[in-house]
Amino acid sequence: ENTASLAVAAKLGLREEGVRPHFLHIDGAWRDHRIFALTTEDLGDGLGDTLEARLHRSWVERAG
């Protein structure tokens, strides 16, 4: 439900691996936690050589 966080994961090309139901207690309620991953194989997709490069590119694009 955190759309901003999910947008970051998508922009970085992270792959969703699963959900941990009722994993986090936030504001008096148990919330699901979505699990994401990035492997070295994923970095060969042309989006950037490293996660650091992806983060930098994302920061530069956001700054305009």
Please tell me the overall pLDDT: 84
List low-pLDDT spans.
Answer: none
Tell me the radius of gyration. 14 Å
Could you give the count of β-strands?
2
Please explain how this structure is put together.
It is a single chain. By secondary structure, the protein is an alpha+beta fold. It contains two helices and two strands. The protein has helices spanning 3-11, 51-63; strands spanning 15-26, 29-37. The model has no long low-confidence stretch (mean pLDDT 84).
Brief overview:
This protein has 64 residues and is α+β, with helices and mostly antiparallel strands. The protein has helices spanning 3-11, 51-63; strands at 15-26, 29-37.
Keywords:
64 residues; two-stranded antiparallel sheet; 2 strands; alpha+beta; flat
Topology:
Blueprint: H1 3-11, E1 15-26, E2 29-37, H2 51-63
Antiparallel strand pairs: 1-2
